[in-house]
């Protein structure tokens, strides 16, 4: 792509570094900013910069937070003895949206993925194991993606804590609400039969 | 969407002002920046800001340029008497990519669209008409979108310059290269028969 301006080219190049944004989309976004008041670009730039430079991570659960402890960890009405292990903060937001969970979280910051060069030491696993060793946790809920990487990460953590006095559970896998059986893959369907629950239990939620 | 951090929320809100970027995508982009070195966010912010604050438009054709005249207008080997009228600089880039055109451009900055509140006075039409009045142009090529708005804009400009000594042409509408006839819409197909060209001409390009 040939640009008539170096400034434009730089902006497009930087924008296209973002995931899922190609050169054409980047150009569209940048030209949009050019058409809008200068103020909008200033706000965008400064909000990104301020966030990147001053953002904080909760010292307890590694969730993004403006204070030392995030709102969830600082909330005395939440059960600190149940910890839900998730990949990133989007998962925290997704689970919080369900209003079904009143425990704490532990954000790993990813999952073990040798293909992407992510090993156990790149994730917040040590601090989780420490918490378990200190006997502060009764139950660990694994809520990672149902993929090879997610399962590997679950198992890696499980092996480190299995000898301590902690219950480990994993979120239920099964047919999504609203799904038709004939379109479900056989692994999911098979597991959903294997891990069936009493009908009375299903009526309660 | 509930955010655990005000800084994060601000960044996501600003990002989601961009066209085609919803809150979820904005969150993904912003979290990506958080995972990358701080330098990347700094580069992105400064390149956007610098572009927005110091960008220049060519005084002749309104194309984006780093100098007063864009490279195309400043090039003595290009024919300044032929002017191709386009909506925005993306169209200039698209036509330049074909290497088929050696004239100048005139960037309108949009098209007449009452639905979006864009009238003739919002576009760079006056300067084009002035150039025609001064007798500097032999041919005007309309290369706007083949839509109601594009046609309206073409016609609006045409009415202002029809009494001057200038040839007005429009880019050919027809079946795209590689298209199968049975899938072409009837208006396009009809026009492509109406505006058929000598077979020998088609062999040359």
From TrEMBL, chains A, B:
Residues 81-176 form the Toprim domain. Keywords: DNA damage, DNA recombination, DNA repair, Metal-binding, Zinc, Zinc-finger. A zinc finger (C4-type) spans 58-73. InterPro entries: DNA_Rcmb_RecR, Rcmb_RecR, Rcmb_RecR_Znf, TOPRIM_dom, TOPRIM_RecR. CDD domains: TOPRIM_recR (cd01025). It holds the Pfam family RecR_HhH. May play a role in DNA repair. It seems to be involved in an RecBC-independent recombinational process of DNA repair. It may act with RecF and RecO. Belongs to the RecR family. This is Recombination protein RecR. It comes from Aequorivita echinoideorum.
């Amino acid at each position: 792509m040939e640009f008539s301006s170096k400034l434009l080219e730089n902006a497009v190049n930087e924008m296209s570094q973002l995931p899922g944004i190609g050169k054409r989309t980047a150009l569209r976004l940048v030209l949009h900013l050019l058409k809008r008041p200068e103020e909008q670009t200033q706000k965008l730039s400064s909000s990104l910069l301020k966030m990147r430079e001053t953002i904080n991570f909760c010292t307890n659960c590694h969730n993004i937070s403006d204070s030392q402890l995030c709102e969830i960890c600082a909330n005395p009405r939440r059960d600190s003895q149940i910890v839900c292990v998730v990949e990133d903060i989007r998962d925290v937001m997704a689970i919080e949206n369900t209003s079904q969970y009143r425990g704490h979280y532990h954000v790993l910051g990813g999952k073990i993925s040798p293909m992407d060069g992510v090993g156990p030491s790149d994730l917040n696993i040590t601090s989780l194991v420490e918490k378990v060793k200190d006997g502060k946790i009764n139950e660990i809920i694994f809520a990672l993606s149902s993929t090879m990487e997610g399962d590997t990460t679950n198992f890696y953590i499980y092996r480190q804590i299995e000898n301590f006095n902690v219950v480990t559970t994993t979120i239920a896998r099964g047919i999504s609400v609203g799904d038709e059986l004939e379109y479900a893959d056989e692994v999911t369907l098979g597991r959903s039969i294997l891990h069936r629950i009493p009908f009375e239990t299903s009526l309660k939620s």
